[in-house]
Design a protein that fits this description.
The chain is mainly α. It is built from six helices and two strands, in the order E-E-H-H-H-H-H-H. The protein folds into two domains: 45 residues, no CATH class; 97 residues, no CATH class.
């Protein structure tokens, strides 16, 4: 049985409970549910592009697959758009190069956090083919040595 202790009163509650049935205290490890997700099972909206930028150089913790791949998708689309603009203006890739330089550190930090989610060290990013495989793996269920499960934060 997956039980935790309430942060407010100390009684046992299920780990997915958003609040304690006894005292009503919000539980920190519980997934946040909106009215839409409670009714239809739809996940709450999150800006998957801006979140990694807010954690600019945070190499500790964990990152979900969804966070990693959405950031990679949007970052690639922005870089390609800027490259097209550079070409149309007759520039030598200045805009796209500046953008790529600006997201270099957040991309590395996000990759390290993604490796942490699979229970591996961030140094695995240095092995290109192996890390691509690990980036596709599902993260560890529950907490691991790198932190809490990001699915439930």
């Amino acid at each position: 049985m997956d039980m935790i202790f309430c942060y407010g009163c100390g009684k046992q509650v299920h780990k997915t409970a958003s609040s304690c049935p006894g005292c009503g205290a919000l539980q920190q490890g519980a997934p946040a549910l909106s009215s839409a997700s409670a009714a239809g099972g739809v996940e709450t909206s999150k800006n998957w592009y801006l979140e990694p930028l807010k954690k600019y150089a945070t190499f500790s913790g964990r990152a979900r697959r969804k966070e990693y791949w959405y950031f990679t998708l949007f970052s690639t689309l922005i870089a390609m758009s800027l490259a097209i603009i550079d070409f149309a203006l007759g520039e030598m890739g200045i805009l796209s190069d500046l953008y790529s330089l600006g997201v270099l550190v957040p991309s590395i930090a996000l990759g390290v956090r993604r490796m942490h989610d699979t229970g591996r060290s961030g140094w695995w990013l240095l092995l290109p083919l192996v890390n691509l495989l690990f980036l596709c793996f599902d993260g560890d269920d529950g907490p691991n040595k790198y932190g809490e499960d990001p699915k439930y934060l």
